[in-house]
Amino acid sequence: MKNFDQILVCGDIHGNMNIITDFLKKMDLKNCAVIVAGDFGIGFEYWMKEVKKLKYFDELLSNNNNTIYAVRGNHDDPSYFNGKYDTDFIKLVPDYTVLELNQWNILCVGGATSIDRMNRKKYITGKGRDWWVNETFYFDENKVKNIKDIDFVVTHTAPHFCYPFVKNGLDYWINRDDLLQDDVDTERLNVTKLYEELKKNNNIAKWYYGHFHMSNILPYDKTLFIGLNINEFKEIKL
Predict the structure, then answer these.
(1) Mind giving me the DSSP string for 30-65?
(2) How far apart are CA 18 and CA 222, in angstroms?
(3) 71: closest CA among 89, 93, 55, 54?
(4) Are 71 and 155 in contact (CB under 8 A)?
(5) Alpha carbon distance 201, 205 (integer Å)
(6) 19 C-beta neighbours (distance < 10 Å), count
(7) Is 214 helix (H, G, I), strand (E, B) or coil?
(8) For the chain, how big is the Rg over CA atoms in Å?
């Protein structure tokens, strides 16, 4: 278990880690944890350049003992989220990791569907990747059944009952992608399954998510669902 003076969750940053380091500096925050709710933005460059970037920001974060925990978004290469690329102060969190921070248990589950995937490529020679076939959210029922004592959840996408009910611009892409509507609907329902299974053995106070690029708050059952806009910060607390 790690203890921090403050724990924050942040919306999509899309590769701009300066958003976090500048915010921490502006607010004069030390010994702070920042959990990015997906779309950290890693994997768009070749791995050597990504590693160099991680090391640079790791050094900046180390000056004030601040740590980033990045949940996987659809705009992240899943292959980076296996511990291999972690630094001392930047952790790329595998799906279904439970972070034990400040005597709280925070479940992190990444993944989502890129609605513009038809306009993206699995691999572009000389330009790296910008879409991954295994980017989506995966509901692992066997893992979830054994997860207990969770206080908070951080995902990239959200259950079907959360705002928004459709992603901005979805109709445009549905007309160009015959499978998109079913994939998006199924994904949201799978995140709902995660919630329904978790609430059997857990009292979840708050559930944070990004992906939709809008701020919103929805009380549902006994849990407060909090959507985060791009580059938006919220403190995690009871």
Answers:
(1) -SEEEEE-S----SSS-HHHHHHHHHHHHHHHHTTT
(2) 35
(3) 93
(4) yes
(5) 13
(6) 20
(7) coil
(8) 17
User: In the numeric block, which tokens belong to residue 42?
Assistant: 């890693």
* 106 Cβ contact list (under 8 Å, min separation 6): 7, 35, 98, 99, 100, 150, 151, 152, 153, 154, 236
Token pair 């930047």 in the structure block, residue:
90
Rounded to whole angstroms, the Cα distance separating 151 from 25 reads: 28
| DSSP-derived 3-state class of residue 16 | coil
How many CB atoms lie under 10 A from the CB of residue 57?
17
User: How far is the C-alpha of 71 from the C-alpha of 91, rounded, in Å?
Assistant: 9
pLDDT in tens, 159-212: 999 999 877 788 999 999 999 999 999 999 999 999 999 999 999 999 999 999
pTM of the predicted model as reported, rounded to 2 decimal places: 0.96
Element (H, E) at 26: helix 18-26
d(CA 204, CA 221): 10
Cβ neighbours of 111 (radius 10 Å): 27
pLDDT at 123 over 60: no
